[in-house]
Amino acid sequence: MKPLFSKGPSLGVRLLVLVVLSVALMVVDARFTLLKPVRSQMSLVLMQTYWITDLPQRLFQGVASQFGSRTELVAENEKLKTENLLLQGRMQKLAALTEQNVRLRELLNSSALVNEKVEVAELIGMDPNPFTHRIIINKGERDGVVLGQPVLDARGLMGQVVELMPYTSRVLLLTDTTHSIPVQVNRNGLRAIASGTGNPERLELRHVADTADIKEGDLLVSSGLGQRFPAGYPVATVKEVIHDSGQPFAIVRAVPTAALNRSRYLLLVFSDSRSPEERANDAAQAQEAEKNGEPLPIIPATVPKPVAVPAVAPTATPAPTATPLVAPTPASGAVKKPAPAVTPAAATPPAAAPATIRERQ
């Protein structure tokens, strides 16, 4: 009778067989290439197994990354928006500072070409009346500004001061309808009068002969004949010349060289009223004082000259004797009336009175 369950090899024999088979496979795989196709096929099967076993973990990481990355992206987006806004504000400020620097450099370059003393002023207001072209600057009477003082920018003349206040001034622009300025063509010296038209981009030359030598593109400069604007400053450029055979005068239109609608920083020109001889004498005295090491102040033309002081000095000696004799003569309260007698010119008549009184005695 056969047993129901036949006995196979023992576990030790099986282990030995498996060990020998494994060693043989490793030797064959290391020495030969016979098992490469088998390995490649098995790798395909094992790859699917790896992908299936790793699927839960990858799903969990994907869901977690989706929620986490969205929060990070929102925060990063807000941060970038804030930085972008700040950088745009700084860029706008930098652009404004760059333009301001350019304007100031142009103004400094133009002031280097001006022989007179100049001072920088800033535009702080404009006249709201559309029919007048006036601006307000931040320099006034306390800063030495005077009525009629020329004002220019980096490109040419802009106008003149027409109203003074302690710390501000009002400037009338060239293009105002009530303003006119004597000019001359820089090419040939032809003189004319440039008047404002109410248009900030246009000037007109009045009473220019139809046969006058003037053409498009000519530069108009101040002639200095009005004793208000110094000579030689750019005023406008001729844009159009219209000749009409039936009219005695030509129509000449010009464009101001100054940026009347755009200039923010201006120059106030302080003209030197000294004569050429006085300038030469002052320069010679300054050079001589510099050589001697003793600085000598230059007397400006506006200061009264001290030449008249010696002429008044001799007449001032009898003044004390004249005052007791002249003072009792007014019988009424008219003593206050001869108050101007303090001046040297008024002191001379009483000087003759003591002499006549002594002769009578």
TrEMBL record:
PANTHER family xrefs: CELL SHAPE-DETERMINING PROTEIN MREC
Region (Disordered): 276-299, 313-361
Keyword match Cell inner membrane: no
UniProt keywords, alphabetically: Cell shape
Low complexity composition-biased segments: 313-355
Domain spans labelled Rod shape-determining protein MreC beta-barrel core: 124-269
Family label: Belongs to the MreC family.
Signal peptide as annotated in the record: none
Protein name: Cell shape-determining protein MreC
UniProt-listed Pfam families: MreC
Naturally occurring in which organism (per UniProt): Pseudomonas weihenstephanensis
